[in-house]
Amino acid sequence: MTAQQDIALPAGRDKTADRKSGTAMLLLSIAVLAVLFLCPLFLKNFTVFQLTMMLIYAIAIMGLNLLTGFNGQFSLGHGAFYAIGAYTTAILMEHFGIAYGWTIPVAGLVCFVSGFLFGLPALRLESIYLALATFSLAIATPQILKLSILEEWTGGVQGIVIIKPDAPFGLPLSQDQWLYYVTLGTGLLLYWAARNLVRSRSGRAIMAIRDNPVAARSMGVNVSLYKALTFGVSALFTGVAGALAAIVVQFVAPDSFTLVLSIALLVGLVVGGVGWLPGALAGGAFIVFVPNIAEEVSKGLSGAMYGLIMILLIYLMPSGAGGLIRTLADWQKRR
Amino acid sequence: METFFQQVLGGIATGGIYACMALAVVMIYQAIHHLNLAQGEMAMFSTFIAWQLLQWGFPYWAAFVLTLGISFAGGFLIERVVLKPLENAPVLSHLVIFIALYAIFNSLAGFIWDFTVKPFPSPFGTAALFGEGLIGAHQAGMILVTLIVLFLLFAFFRYTRVGLAMRAAAANPESARLVGIRVGTMAALGWGMAASIGAVAGIMIAPVVFLEPNMMLSILLYGFAGAVLGGLTSPGGAVFGGFAVGVIENLAGTYIPVVGAELKLPIALALIVVVLVIKPNGLFGRTVVQRV
Predict the structure, then answer these.
(1) How far apart are the first and last CA of chain A?
(2) For the domain bounded by B2-278, which CATH number is listed?
(3) Mutation target vs B (from A128, A295, A324; most B CBs, 10 A cutoff)
(4) What is the ipTM for the molecules in this complex?
(5) Could you report the per-residue pLDDT of A140-170, keeping only the tens digit for each?
(6) What is the Cα–Cα distance from B121 to A172, expressed in whole angstroms?
(7) pLDDT band at residue B289, thresholds of 50, 70 and 90?
(8) Residue whose C-alpha is closest to residue B143's, from B208, B194, B83, B70
(9) B 95-124 residues with CB < 8 A to A
(10) What is the chain B residue with the closest CA to A309?
(11) How many whole angstroms separate alpha carbon B153 and alpha carbon B170?
(12) Which of B110, B259, B270 sits opposite A147 (nearest CB)?
């Protein structure tokens, strides 16, 4: 029993059943998309901000899903790449006066390179040991950001404040609404890319490594290269999310990027469904809204409530929102 | 040279704390093959129970033994109630359960005993033994207790039937079940024991770091690091790893210029990652051979 097999998807479904439930899925996706497109027009600015954060976390979770769900590598340290993305954007805007739109691809690129480089030594480590290595990364991030020798760039403990951009071309949107649509657009673009990646030849190689690295190697897959590349791509997604977060929150500081963030991303991944990309949306919603719900139920025991909700979710849908939807679809078909 | 020895001694003193925790981590890893993120919070909760018993006027060692018993029962119950239904769930689901337990214990302790820092008595006194207060009587006592626990565990796993059964259940659940071992009960026993060892660690650590709901966070990190460094399959290795982490942390803080003092923890962790890259199963861990 290896870790790789444990986190693999539930048994594959046959193709004809897939096609039948395909139309239902398509309608559902269109409905979700329509809601996502229209809802900010009718909501308060703060709610729009929360929804934007949900989308941002969803992007980061997608990245983590590529690594953990499709490639079978654990990461407890994706908060670090989120932080690198956020700081890249903040520093480029603050010190170089670059427009926010251009900083996002740069942040993605920087994160891709750092993720790839971190992925190289991580090749030697498996499951729990990899978890520890990434865990260390998450612990180290806020402390490195606080370093006095980097203070000139990072602003030390105080962090960097950036200015929220207005909607361009005189569009009749508030700043929050505009950023919501920027995030939604970026998210959809990345979702499309991730989906295509997973379905491509490279995607099959990535999943083959998850299911059986030795067999993948003997089929001619360059395991080391693909694992490191997946780490890079995953970091790219998370970095873009971090960059967007910096713009939306208008502020970066070391203490926003602690272990708590990395763990929240992981919880979001499991809640959404490991190995199912659209689940990221459910995961993002969990990260943003569930702590608030827990606080409303009981102020003093909000942590305990949060924990209880997590345990209940794992009981009720062991394979996340993705698993739940799949079960419901199967049940619908059998009726 | 003198600073060097002082730093090493100081490192060994704090390393004792990490060794305690690393031992608890390895114990539960042997029983269930998972790293329990909530281990530190469970230990903290046990320590609060001990504190409460002391407040109620129990003598120290009676409270100590009673806490161990309560923790054992608690750990056993958690396994039965929370984890048993998820026996076959993926690793990541377990991870989320651990995070949930973490949040629950942390918030419960804060709710019942509030977040103010409380002093915790030491059974060994606070007199300085040698090295100008670097190793006090309590630190020495703590290291002694760690070694005793290690010895007892070694004897338990090596010479008793239950210990053998637990090892078998962890190493190969299916074969163990075929020869009549109750694998589920063994896992619950493992949780109980890990909770008790955590309680020992918590009670020993509390006089040094003071009692409060967040006291275990950084210690658990170091404990994990020590356990992984020594090898998750080896209790002795874990104790060594714990001491090593303490010493490395201290030396890094003293001898690495500019960033050393600020980055003590990341440097220690980075060193451990380097060790792991060279020896992926830890210093004393068994290499697991996998059939393809």
Answers:
(1) 35
(2) 1.10.3470
(3) A128
(4) 0.77
(5) 888 888 777 777 777 777 778 877 777 677 6
(6) 66
(7) low
(8) B208
(9) 95-97, 99-104, 106-108, 110-111
(10) B100
(11) 16
(12) B259
